[in-house]
Design goal:
11 helices, Tetracycline Repressor, domain 2, DNA-binding, mainly alpha, homotetramer
Chain lengths: 190, 190, 190, 190
DNA sequence: GATGAATGAGTGTTCATTCAT
DNA sequence: CATGAATGAACACTCATTCAT
């Protein structure tokens, strides 16, 4: 397994995402993914150790991409609310632009494959955000209730509302996104 | 003539849930499910049309059970906040008691199998809840922002916080649950 | 395996013929035959020892029926040619009336199941015909060339021409049938 | 990369023919055919789309082979009777040499699989023969009675007489074959 | 590095037959 | 007598992976 051709590797990521979203993990065989990527099944084993490695790498890749999009306009010197609003908007922008990445990562993280990811590897991408929340708690702007609860109200809703499988009726317009942010902020603000 | 055995059907539901939670949809073969339920693979096809039917039936079954638990103490004459708090608590109680049902339904509803469920069949179980939200909107107690956004802040967090895969650090204590409800209510209240 | 209900047995014969003609031996399962006959699969085993017995019995039954139709107007005192022409016509009449029987018996006799039939049991039905041929040979009216060759020219063509799978273009009109008989007779006559 | 092995494909054809003749279509499973050909069942699917494709290809292959044998000494400049006699003899020679091909093709063409063959693909192999018959009709040497009837008397008897299942008593000697041709010719000649 | 061929083990499903009623 | 339930074995076919080139 040596990496040579980045174009091929990227094609494999895209093929995996497309196929898993279309037919699910259960039906996404190596042969089908290879066909979708227009390479031989055998070639996959040059780029990845095995199927599991391909799937996990695809997920981690998405998560990295996602964190970069989210933190693109991150400026820790702004007021907390503004920081979060910018994160919120950038994240929805990303969801709009790459719904297929969102769909894949939801399906992946709710499957037993998720256990194979080294959690810390992914969490580190999002560390700056946690630090903002902590500052908000320290400054008595945000409720002092633990990260788990806070993220359940300011980040998970992004996923829920972006999930076309769950929210068929939520239009991703700027107005709706800002409205939803009001609720998120009301939830966590002191 | 032997008679149909409801015990066997229930055993199949339980075996399906247990196995899917342990090894995921992709790896849960009919043969393995049958073995877990201690029956012949062929027998499954007496109780269900095919594998898909087994999986979907298991899900709908859980959803029905879940709705009954949630609406157990439903009393539409109480104040809106109290109604929602009771729902919230009953739902968390259910999650605590049957984490395996929650885990299965999360995995199921985020897989392509979800598309096979007739949505209306499941939604009807939860209709009384939507009516409460509507009343809250009409009485200017709840923000007028559409069901999708509201449920993203008062019901999806229950799932997120109950999801042992996502929230490893959230303890399902009464105190934590009530704290979380405060955020939910702050999010949706006017 | 005791025979009680002739109606049910006949229904089984008909179901077998219909199904085998439609989907072939390979796909004609006991369960499907039972369904077609509107009885339980288990009931088949009251009337027949096993699937093989059902198929063979169906065939022998048809052959018996066929011989009766063929010999209906048999009159050994007529001239040889007339006897054969009457046989020929009656046989085509039978083919027209019961194409499904012909189709089944062709498929059956060209499958390895045919080996399971006790040949003598079937041949005895057609014995009078062989005696006519012998008389024709003795009286120097028919070529002295062995039964195998003679039947290949005066009986097998009936099957060939009645076989809708082989002869798509041959219309079973009286005129065509009589024309074909001319050829058969020319073949065997001295 | 290993290269495709024509020996393997031919082995599959032979295994199919051998097995179908021995145990019939109904019992000839992919696994058994693979075992007979000494390859893995999975390998069959590299050479053929599915079981049906294997069976149909085997049949078409035989028919092609058969037509070549039949037309080997074809010379359209000879008198009609001589042309047909040569065809007749070559065909019987082929039957003698490859009784297993005959047996297979009889069983195949009388099974529902026959419907899957594109008729034209097979018929074109035998076209020169039909042209001879037409010439015979035009020259008033052969009865003007339609191809269906003519072939029922000059080609189907070859199959009947070669069929060891039907004709147990017909010896494929030159003398018998010529005798039989006399009957065939008497049948169709004017 | 890249590939189609090859395969043992597995897939979901149906089989002929028997069982318990 | 008649049945639907039950099943081990088999079905056609696909799997993830390795091999030879």
């Amino acid at each position: 397994m040596r990496i040579r051709d980045d174009v091929k590797q990227e094609a494999l990521f895209q093929a995996t995402i497309k196929l898993v979203n279309k037919i699910g993990f259960a039906s996404s065989s190596v042969a089908k993914i290879a066909k979708e990527a227009r390479i031989s099944p055998a070639t996959i084993y040059i780029y990845f150790k095995n199927k599991e490695d391909l799937l996990v790498s695809t997920y981690v890749n998405i998560k990295h991409d996602m964190s970069e999009a989210m933190l693109k306009n991150f400026n820790k010197n702004l007021p907390i609310r503004d920081i979060l609003k910018i994160l919120w908007r950038d994240m929805f922008a990303y969801s709009s632009k790459h719904p297929e990445y969102i769909e894949f990562s939801i399906q992946f993280s709710n499957s037993p494959f998720a256990d194979l990811v080294v959690k810390k590897d992914v969490e580190k991408y999002f560390e700056p955000i946690l630090m903002v929340l902590q500052r908000g708690i320290d400054e008595k702007i945000i409720k002092n209730v633990g990260y788990e609860i806070l993220t359940a109200f300011i980040f998970h809703p992004i996923i829920s509302l972006s999930n076309r499988k769950i929210c068929t009726g939520f239009e991703l317009s700027d107005k709706n996104i800002d409205t939803a942010f009001t609720l998120a902020w009301d939830a966590i603000k002191l």
